[in-house]
Automatic annotation (TrEMBL):
<dbReference type="InterPro" id="IPR002376">
    <property type="entry name" value="Formyl_transf_N"/>
</dbReference>
<dbReference type="Pfam" id="PF00551">
    <property type="entry name" value="Formyl_trans_N"/>
</dbReference>
<comment type="similarity">
    <text>Belongs to the GART family.</text>
</comment>
<dbReference type="InterPro" id="IPR001555">
    <property type="entry name" value="GART_AS"/>
</dbReference>
<feature type="active site" description="Proton donor">
    <location>
        <position position="108"/>
    </location>
</feature>
<comment type="pathway">
    <text>Purine metabolism; IMP biosynthesis via de novo pathway; N(2)-formyl-N(1)-(5-phospho-D-ribosyl)glycinamide from N(1)-(5-phospho-D-ribosyl)glycinamide (10-formyl THF route): step 1/1.</text>
</comment>
<keyword id="KW-0808">Transferase</keyword>
<feature type="binding site">
    <location>
        <position position="106"/>
    </location>
    <ligand>
        <name>(6R)-10-formyltetrahydrofolate</name>
    </ligand>
</feature>
<dbReference type="GO" id="GO:0004644">
    <property type="term" value="F:phosphoribosylglycinamide formyltransferase activity"/>
</dbReference>
<protein>
    <recommendedName>
        <fullName>Phosphoribosylglycinamide formyltransferase</fullName>
        <ecNumber>2.1.2.2</ecNumber>
    </recommendedName>
</protein>
<keyword id="KW-0658">Purine biosynthesis</keyword>
<comment type="function">
    <text>Catalyzes the transfer of a formyl group from 10-formyltetrahydrofolate to 5-phospho-ribosyl-glycinamide (GAR), producing 5-phospho-ribosyl-N-formylglycinamide (FGAR) and tetrahydrofolate.</text>
</comment>
<dbReference type="InterPro" id="IPR036477">
    <property type="entry name" value="Formyl_transf_N_sf"/>
</dbReference>
<feature type="site" description="Raises pKa of active site His">
    <location>
        <position position="144"/>
    </location>
</feature>
<feature type="binding site">
    <location>
        <position position="64"/>
    </location>
    <ligand>
        <name>(6R)-10-formyltetrahydrofolate</name>
    </ligand>
</feature>
<dbReference type="InterPro" id="IPR004607">
    <property type="entry name" value="GART"/>
</dbReference>
<feature type="domain" description="Formyl transferase N-terminal">
    <location>
        <begin position="1"/>
        <end position="181"/>
    </location>
</feature>
Amino acid sequence: MKVAILISGSGSNMVALAQSMTGDHPARPCLVLANDPDASGLAKARAMGIPTAAIDHRPFKGDRAAFETALLEPLLAAKPDFVALAGFMRVLTAGFVRQFEGRMLNIHPSLLPRYKGLNTHARAIAAGDAEAGCTVHEVTAALDDGPILGQARVPILPNDTPDSLAARVLPMEHRLYPLVLRRVATGERGPVSLP
């Protein structure tokens, strides 16, 4: 099974996914694709021997359809069986998502269905929640709204800031996403949970 990974920045979840796809893992990374040519994750992917491509979203000036048409060129050329969004910070249209229906995953830094969108850690702290975490879900046309395939939880501590909470959630993302990808690659679709 070939997996294309879409990123926007440092690619820490991409690295965790790529490092997990070795040995007896049924999947292999076939492309790391970024919407920013300066994303530092591209260099990390190249260092790991993974083909890379970048389609800068900025010249498209809000024309999402044109951007996605350009994005599809290297993506379809790589012939992925699955697409993993790993810190890809662009909202994808329903038309784009439909092409990979049932074959696109995302990791989101909250316990969905709570706190879709941005600033998830600040929102969880402001709400007085006892815990936060991350969710891997199937991507659908609705933002952060597809079937949940896995969640990992961390407690929110009394003196937590959004940054300190994010620093504790990120290692859980790096554990959860590879676990869910392996399960999906072997045909398991039921949700999994990490404490």
